[in-house]
Amino acid sequence: MITAEIDTVAMAEARAAAYALLAHGFQYPDAEWYELIFQAERWRDWPDVLAQERPCVASLAAEVRRAITDQVTARTFDHDDRALHRFQAAHDALFGHTVSGKCCAYETEYGDSEISQRSAQLADLAGFYQAFGLEAASRDGDRPDFVSVECAFMSVLCSKEAHGRRCGNDDWVDCTVDAQRAFLQDHLARWLPAFTHRVGEAGVDPFYTALSRLGGELVALECARLELSYGPRWLELRHSDPEGETTISCLDATECGPGSVACAPAAGGARFTPLNVDIGGA
């Protein structure tokens, strides 16, 4: 529970930055990913702010950063190229090139649900995004249940909460906090603990191991803050159904989803991807 001594604007901004780091970190490491991950503002302020509530967050954030910088001792193009290839190889080993990789990064692959239930979950996710005028950008892997998309959405909600608090708009704050609670309860907090546990147990690369531990701690902090249940460390993956996959529409859900969270959505339906969320510190 956030105490009166803690700056609630700074806390919301810090949570937004942490979610944005997770969103970016689990994306496939291309050249743009590699350049952005080194930006100084990605690491400024927010770990210490969150550490007021969850002390291990700061040390885990430092562990993630150290796992990155340890791979780069000289900022030359050739060395950067080799380091990028190492990140790519680790990502491939963990997540593969199919939906059901070694450490599956898609929510609806967890649990033995029927195809109709999975379609409903995907529609619910798309409804959340559209309620705030957002849609996933057309990128490989950007299904609405992809871990990076879900974390990016939470980053947006936290940023909107911070703006509402800064402006003294209590209705907007209540709306965004309610949306965070509903999204965590129905989606991210349900499966991300199992996902991060799989990544950590795989032990493929120090960066992804540290990033998964940070993700688990962030969601644990969020569940404590919002008085929600923290999901189990283990969930079975659903059985593969190649024929059923063709029946799922991932992003077109114009008439579904949680209408109760639609408070003043952005006009026009902004395109949204984990790479364009503001990751600056407080």
Average pLDDT taken over every residue? 81
Residues in helices, as a percent range: 55-70%
At CATH's second level, what is the architecture?
Orthogonal Bundle
- Strand arrangement across the biggest beta sheet: 1-2
Helix vs. strand class? mainly alpha
The name CATH uses for the topology is: TorD-like
Number of strands: 2
Radius of gyration, in angstroms, nearest whole number: 18 Å
Strand content: under 5%
The level 1 CATH classification is: Mainly Alpha
Describe this structure in words.
- This protein has 282 residues and is mainly α.
- It has one domain: TorD-like.
- The chain contains ten helices and two strands.
- A two-stranded parallel sheet has the order 1-2.
- It is globular.
Q: TL;DR?
A:
By secondary structure, the protein is mostly helical. It has helices at 8-25, 31-37, 46-51, 56-69, 77-95, 115-131, 147-167, 170-202, 206-226, 242-245; strands spanning 134-136, 270-272. It is globular.
Keywords:
TorD-like; 2 strands; disordered C terminus; mainly alpha; 282 residues
